[in-house]
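Thread: quick sanity check before group meeting

JM: Hey all, I'm pulling together slides for Thursday and realized we never actually wrote out the predicted structure for the chain we discussed last week. Dropping the sequence here so it's in one place. If anyone has concerns about the input, flag it before I start.
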Amino acid sequence: MSYAPTPSQTVGPFYGYALPFPRGGEVAPVGHPETITLHGYVYDGAGNPVPDALIETWQPAPDGSRTGAPGSLRHDPVTGEVIGRDGLAFTGFGRVPTDADGHYTIRTLPPGGVSYIAVAVFARGLLHHLYTRAYLVDEPGDALLGALDPARRATLITRAETSHTYRFDIRLQGEGETVFLEFQ
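JM (edit): ok, ran it. Output follows.
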């Protein structure tokens, strides 16, 4: 007897219990002089903030290496609880929930070898999480950006607020919907 695959379930909102971890948005080592801030809001199709989304980021280190240091999800050896980062190592991975206003913040280092930070979005109502990119600069030779019309391309480009702060709002659907990527 063979069974058909089970359909996906709607994701969350259960993130406060299972997925966030302490200092999940502090990807850069504490006090690092090249630290940048990536922040923004997650909006639903009606333009309302999503207060219970979860944002994950991945990126190479400033030298372009992609291995990262171990330790993003360190656990207490006695209790097994997630105790988060040690504050010293760059792992290239971040995970933060949005706050009550739909806002998130990641403090990281500039990615080496690419002009973007990879982003995954988990939110209520999604059957599967969504992948996108937050480009820190508009990269003329980038294949993905080059394949998009200007309006869609603009949804992937961060807005520099200061020399070390970038805003990247994520629109899940509707007017100005962020470009999301599909991986096979």
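AS: nice. Residues 10 and 127 are 5 Å apart (CA to CA). The mean pLDDT is 87.
JM: adding both to the slides.
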